[in-house]
Amino acid sequence: MLLLGIESSCDETAAAVVEDGRKILSSVIASQVEEHKIYGGVVPEIASRRHSEAISGVVGEALSQSGKSLSDLDGIAVTYAPGLIGALLVGVNFAKGLALSTGLPLVPVHHLRGHIASNYLSSPELTPPFLCLVVSGGHSHIVWVEDYTCLKILGRTRDDAAGEAFDKAARAMGIPYPGGVELDKIAEEGDENAYKLPHPHVDGAPLDFSFSGLKTAVLNLLNNARQKGEQVSVPDLCASYRKAVVDCLIHNLFLAAEETGARRIALAGGVSANRLLRRRAQAVCKEKGLPLYLPDLSLCGDNAAMIASQGYYEFLAGNVAGMDLNACAQRSIEE
Ligand code: KG4
Ligand code: ZN
Whole-structure pTM over 0.85, yes or no? Predict the structure, then answer.
């Protein structure tokens, strides 16, 4: 079964053709990141405009690279939630137009379910149930994936998402948006024990995360140093901060693994590209004898192949939408 995937929830316009949820025939991504950089973050209005301009060409390119035409497809999967509403609407409306004109089924896909599905593309042997740490720019969840379309959130962030926490701390250190990627690179050169930072936990909810206090600790450290005229080592601070964030993620993930008796662990979302997070997850899984599934680096960030992959399982579960499908800025991965 061939599905076209369309993704436009944030600042990447993407389209892909995927066979049976597991084999990528094409994957095209038009990133707007350079344009948003000068503003220090994604500007929603600009994102929507760029999606509108790019989407037709990106979908055409994905079809052309796959060697397939619209008549070869069995369905159109599209990200409908969560994300920037104006950005989501571009993908949803384009997908609706295609579905209406071709008569193909329209399959709505939750963006974070898509991130989890990037593991189905990278590891063909992976099947639910498994435990997944989903860490992106907007979300940080520990998810029990009972089945492809039956998911339960066991832990979540109470404030900033992990990606957001990386980006904001990076910005405070003068690293341009999206700082998380660069902070990770710079951290490789630093001493992770140079600065003592808090490891926040949420009272009464041991699987939940809280990163805003950690981010504030970095801001305070930078301000204090500035006032005293002291030098801050950016590589050391990047390394110490990355260690603190990753310590929290790893601690809660493996606490959840113990509580659920999970036999398989996966990572997903933009932050799953983080070098330390991958190394630490690999080390703990090795020690515990648990298989670890990591998305290929090319599939960690936003892409449409993951949407087509999850779309395949949504379609098999009967989750097909009508022409009244709407985009939702917020929606739980469980729904
Ligand atoms: O999943 P994603 O591409 O978009 C959302 O759905 O939000 O995640 C983007 C986030 C950004 O905050 C970015 O800084 C972060 O993922 N990110 C990283 C790394 N690569 C991307 N954070 C830390 N280390 C990385 N290597
Ligand atoms: Zn994403």
Answer: yes
